[in-house]
């Protein structure tokens, strides 16, 4: 069975974060003590995915390569793909078609952060569906601001409605998509929307019409943060800082996940810790070498 591959969509112009993003990609901005892209990367790693395509703008790609390298330091393999212009989320599947080579995929937006004790379990559940697609619905107080999932009488997804005036539920569709190997073909059939983009909702609707779309609900106990505005970027940083200070644990830490997944060994982890030894991040990595195996991962 073909292993699932990952896609991180880290393109876009980040205009909502101007002037911060005039000289640097949004996904390279700090969220407390780590670059933003570490957080979506960690979600794919928690899914057991080791081959990842990172889609960037032409001008930002060199900085991502400098930060992330080829992935081998974490026992992974990264491929870099240029998105010439931001023509919609569904375009990512067309750009990544050769990389995917028929494999199922998990795509995550580079500015989305997820946290929750049961996160690895619902990721595993989605990964277990090799046919069709799975999206993640997050319970929000203001669903009219999002794409919202409508459920039928049996609790199955019946419709996805973009910014509905009368929301059919409180579950917003988040920026994480598990799709089968048919996604690139379906994406090529998506027609541009009135704003000229290949919309992800249109791609998901093609799965829905075939009865092949599932929703994993994320309710109490989960955090989903979109860092696309100045306020939400600050909120995310404060959230991560609170977790680190109160619990002494890191969220979005690739070294920790790679170590616990068995992708790197203790000597490699120690090498990472030495590199960051002047920081709390480095001290946390040193602590992992002595930590109990029951220590939670996030």
UniProtKB/TrEMBL annotation:
Cofactor: Mg(2+)
Keywords recorded for this protein, A-Z: Magnesium, Metal-binding, Nucleotidyltransferase, Transferase
Catalytic activity: dTTP + alpha-D-glucose 1-phosphate + H(+) = dTDP-alpha-D-glucose + diphosphate
GO molecular function annotations of the record: glucose-1-phosphate thymidylyltransferase activity; metal ion binding
Residues in Nucleotidyl transferase domain copies: 5-240
EC number annotated for this UniProt entry: 2.7.7.24
Signal peptide: none
Enzyme class, spelled out: transferase
Family: Belongs to the glucose-1-phosphate thymidylyltransferase family.
Name by which UniProt lists this protein: Glucose-1-phosphate thymidylyltransferase
Organism: Martelella radicis
Lineage, opening ranks: Bacteria, Pseudomonadati, Pseudomonadota, Alphaproteobacteria, Hyphomicrobiales
């Amino acid at each position: 069975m073909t292993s699932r591959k990952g896609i991180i969509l880290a393109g876009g112009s980040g205009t909502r974060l101007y002037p911060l993003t005039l000289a640097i990609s949004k996904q390279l901005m700090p969220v407390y003590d780590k670059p933003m892209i570490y957080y979506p990367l960690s979600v794919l790693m928690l899914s057991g995915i080791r081959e990842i395509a990172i889609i960037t703008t032409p001008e930002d790609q060199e900085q991502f390569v400098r930060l992330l390298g080829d992935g081998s330091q974490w026992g992974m393999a990264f491929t870099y793909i240029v998105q010439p212009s931001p023509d919609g989320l569904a375009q990512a599947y067309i750009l990544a078609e050769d990389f995917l080579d028929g494999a199922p995929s998990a795509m995550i937006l580079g500015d989305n952060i997820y946290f929750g004790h049961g996160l690895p379990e619902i990721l595993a559940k989605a990964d277990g569906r090799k046919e069709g697609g799975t999206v993640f619905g997050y319970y929000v107080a203001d669903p009219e601001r999002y794409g919202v999932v409508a459920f039928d009488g049996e609790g199955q997804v019946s419709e996805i409605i973009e910014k509905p005036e009368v929301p059919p539920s409180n579950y917003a569709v988040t920026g994480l998509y598990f799709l089968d190997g048919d996604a690139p073909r379906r994406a090529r059939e998506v027609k541009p929307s009135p704003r000229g983009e290949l919309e992800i909702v249109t791609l998901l609707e093609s799965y829905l019409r075939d009865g092949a779309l599932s929703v994993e609900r994320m309710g109490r106990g989960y955090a989903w943060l979109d860092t696309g505005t100045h306020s939400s970027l600050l909120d995310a940083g404060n959230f991560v800082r609170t977790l680190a200070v109160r619990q002494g644990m890191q969220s979005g830490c690739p070294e920790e996940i790679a170590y616990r997944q068995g992708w790197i060994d203790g000597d490699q982890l120690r090498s990472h810790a030495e590199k960051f030894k002047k920081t709390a991040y480095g001290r946390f990595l040193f602590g992992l070498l002595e930590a109990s195996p029951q220590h939670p991962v996030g």
